[in-house]
Amino acid sequence: MKRIVITRKLPAEAIAALQDNYQVSMWDSEEASAPREWIIEQSKEADALLTMLSDKIDAELLQGASKLKVVANLAVGFDNIDIQEATERGVAVCNTPDVLTETTADLTFALLMGTARRIGEAAQFVKEGKWKSWSPLLLAGGDIYGKTIGIYGMGSIGEAVARRAKGFNMEILYHNRSRKKEAENQLGASYVEFEELLSSSDFIVCLAPLTPETKGAFNADAFSKMKSSAYFINAARGPIVDEDALLKALEEGEIAGAGLDVFTHEPISQDHPLLSLPNVLALPHIGSSSVETRMTMMELCVENIANVLDGKNPKTLVNKEWMK
């Protein structure tokens, strides 16, 4: 019987189809990541892996997984997987695009709003019993309606965020590796160079994939070009940002605040200096975390695995060279 390894405990109903037809080995914790040693050992006899973004599926692991036919990543991103090595070994790599677009856009815009209006600070202020009276500038934040949003990475999630921004009568700027004419026509978005995006936007929203070109794009020079009243929102990948430069920009008032759903190292340490700043709203990488969306993502991973093991093409293949 073909063997499937799942690196995080998932609901029984999500993987029922796999358990009915295959031998399934699943890490038994929802809270803790499976140790790398466990994944490597389990992979040696696996025909399929259902992985999380936090799992490093690199050459070392793939070289020891001689039976492996498919890796289904429970994420739209796949920078945790060595795509070239997988392709050379005939392993299909699948992700979960599209199904999480709107949910992630919801969270991104909520993070933008929460950061500007100091929602996290205000909620804590009440819970800690600090609300003693009303005052005109009590926890006053920044306006959103009618401001300028700059979207770095105009993929499907970027376009979904732009649609939400349009409802707030925001001017929409974007920078992308290629022009998106349809988005420009439908959403009234304007393509600008990176420097103009930085200098003209009241909100910079990072939604780009992590690539060699985007890694470290938001560095000290980038933050120095932003408005002192601007907010930086990252719902993409942590390494796109130089966190030391972001910390300095926040401490020295180069920018007004930051809303972060992702970090260079996850989970982020409780002692990380960014978490000590009142103008930082930090979330635990929950961009696509609604019950409906996460269940749909799991179902898509299951379907991709079943298709490959049954000799069919998966629905959402990353390495197109693998296509049968």
UniProtKB/TrEMBL annotation:
Q: Which GO terms describe its cellular component?
A: cytosol
Gene3D superfamilies from the UniProt entry? NAD(P)-binding Rossmann-like Domain (3.40.50.720)
What InterPro entries does this protein's entry cite?
Answer: D-isomer_2-hydroxyacid_DH, D-isomer_2_OHA_DH_cat_dom, D-isomer_DH_CS, D-isomer_DH_CS1, D-isomer_DH_NAD-bd, NAD(P)-bd_dom_sf
Q: Which residues form the D-isomer specific 2-hydroxyacid dehydrogenase NAD-binding domain?
A: 109-287
The keyword Oxidoreductase belongs to this UniProt entry's keyword annotation: yes
Q: Which GO terms describe its molecular function?
A: glyoxylate reductase (NADPH) activity; hydroxypyruvate reductase [NAD(P)H] activity; NAD binding
Residues annotated as domain D-isomer specific 2-hydroxyacid dehydrogenase catalytic: 4-319
Sorted alphabetically, the keyword list is: Oxidoreductase
Membership in a protein family: Belongs to the D-isomer specific 2-hydroxyacid dehydrogenase family.
- Protein name as it appears in the record: Glyoxylate reductase
What is the species of this protein? Answer: Falsibacillus pallidus
